[in-house]
Fold this sequence. Notes:
By secondary structure, this protein is of the alpha+beta class. It has helices spanning 259-281, 303-319, 326-347; strands at residues 8-14, 19-26, 46-53, 56-59, 75-77, 79-81, 88-99, 104-115, 119-121, 124-125, 129-130, 133-136, 142-146, 156-159, 162-165, 172-183, 189-193, 197-204, 210-212, 217-224, 227-237, 241-246, 294-296. The longest helix has 23 residues, at 259-281. This is Carboxypeptidase regulatory-like domain-containing protein. The chain crosses the membrane at residues 257-275.
Amino acid sequence: MGPAANVWVTLHRVGSDTAGAIDSTRSDAAGRYRFRYVPRGAGDAVYFASSTWDGIAYFTAPLRSANARDDAAEITVFDTTSRTFPLTVKGRHLIVSRPDSTDRRTIVEVFELSNDSLKALVSVDTTTLRPTWSVSIPATAMDVRVNDGDISPNAFVASNGRASVYSPIAPGIKQVAFTYKLPNSSFPLALTSEDGAVVFEVLLEEPQGSVSGQGFTAVEPVSLEGRNFKRSLAQDLKPDTRIVIELPSTGTPGRNLYIAALLAAIGFMMLLVLSRSMQRTASKRAGAAITPSLRPRESEAPLADRLAQEIAALDATYARQQEPSASVQQAYTTRRAELRAALAAELGQPFDSSESK
């Protein structure tokens, strides 16, 4: 497909003082658009552009300067399809807390879903509304809640032993994160990784716990937001792999999980892991800088384009962190420098490390 011509593009500003659209224009025949604006007001204000294509809104990453161009200002849009197809689970992260005073454990699940097609998947209303993605959850799960992220609470439903998403899923990676509570009597807990996963990580707050399943290996423990977790990891997990989590039958009630902070750290770290994995496995091709535009996605994007998109995704994810911890800040700075260096090398340009900060 060619450029998205004659499409409305809107410039937005979001700050602690005011928020809203500040200008709009139509793209030209080549899909290009231009805004002139002067940053104003609160210093924490973020600017970005958006456009709607086939009923779905798409956004740029936060514009880091008033002279944003090329990859930083590009909006990639997609046609839609209601024809269901499997999404790749790039990452699945499952966290199990200590039991609380009611003898229940908080479970956090984070999925990194990849739509590897060239179309945005949308739900369709036949006799009943069909979700764009769903996954099984334990029958004893209580108080199932979707967390802030890529999925609106209005597009998430938990019923009949499944958590389902009804929002559009565009090509690329989308994060789905939700929590629920399980009575301690639900353990040992048997789960099935329905669609497999490129990376499946299980974190247990109790060091006496264990994870068994084909491909799982115990690795170094990890500390997140001041909490210590025993860690088990599997890579390239096959569909329908059975996993069993065993925990002590009793234990000292733990503090409630700081869900928001924990999810922010986990989601950001998972993005770093996945971006490294995708960069390692990508075949190297000659890259060329692109003109800032609004255009449908092309297949087989050059490595330079994909590296630029990873930087934009990394920046957008980091911008959503309200109060990033020191570990998250360090991970962001390090990974952004790695991606900028790789992009400069791919384009045959010198790399200035000061530009990555």
